[in-house]
Design a protein that fits this description.
Length: 252
């Protein structure tokens, strides 16, 4: 009986640690959401910044380009080139460069290569809430392309807009409402690229964009560290259950 109680207590302690991490992650996410709402709309200004934000038309800041074209099933999963997947864009503010997939693109074939600073949007979704989610590419890459179900936006030279700021903005409540207003469809919703280019929205000065993006990125990094810690403790608990509940390890 004493050993059963000791095992139960050890597992209960592990559960308590996991629950505290889960609650902390929820709290940090709520704090980040509040910061996004305040900083990305100008309700709250970072120290050292003031003045009016400038309303800009998206189409004046750059141009749209499409993903891979003319590909068949046999072109994917092979080849020396790589492409950014639909889910990579859906799941991340910043493109994860460790999860690209292979695609065969022959020499001299015309396809749009991605570039550092590009924004990517999923062009359709089953719900208006998930259409037009945005991610930014923050790395210099070679021979990487975009999947055909998404489109890219490339800032023109001299446009003082930070890609990371824009990615956060288009994922904020304010940005999502703008994008949702463009969603067209019934069973599947599509984003009109022409209408997207006509959008107008206020932007802070370039330096303030960078500062805001840095604050939000640091918050995301803190959340990611906590998520890794949570996953590690969940694995530890599984190992404890396996070893303690089978008698492979005995508590002293």
């Amino acid at each position: 009986m004493h050993e059963q109680e000791a095992i139960a207590e050890a597992l209960s302690d592990a559960d308590a640690l996991i629950e505290s991490l889960e609650q902390l992650i929820i709290k940090k996410r709520q704090i980040k959401q509040g910061a996004m709402q305040e900083l990305l709309t100008g309700i709250k200004r970072l120290p050292g910044f003031s003045g009016e934000w400038e309303v800009k038309r998206i189409g004046d800041l750059g141009s749209i380009f499409g993903g891979l074209t003319g590909k068949t099933k046999s072109d994917f999963g092979v080849g020396a080139s790589r492409y950014i997947t639909f889910m990579n864009i859906m799941a991340n503010v910043v493109i994860n460069c460790d999860t690209f997939e292979q695609v065969n693109v022959v020499p001299n074939e015309y396809q749009n290569r991605v570039m550092k600073g590009d924004l990517f949007f999923n062009g359709s979704s089953e719900t208006p809430e998930e259409v037009g989610l945005c991610a930014v590419l923050n790395d210099e890459l070679h021979d990487v392309y975009l999947n055909s179900f998404c489109f890219g936006f490339r800032f023109r030279s001299g446009a003082e807009n930070d890609g990371l700021f824009c990615a956060y903005y288009f994922r904020s409540n304010e940005g999502r409402e703008l994008i949702k207003s463009l969603a067209q469809g019934a069973t599947r919703y599509n984003l009109s690229k022409t209408a997207f280019l006509r959008l107008t929205t206020p932007f802070p000065p370039f330096a303030e964009q960078i500062a805001i993006a840095k604050v939000l990125s640091d918050m995301d990094t803190e959340i990611d560290v906590l998520k890794e810690k949570l996953a590690k403790n969940q694995q530890i608990k599984q190992g404890m259950m396996h070893n303690l509940l089978t008698g492979k390890i005995r508590l002293v």
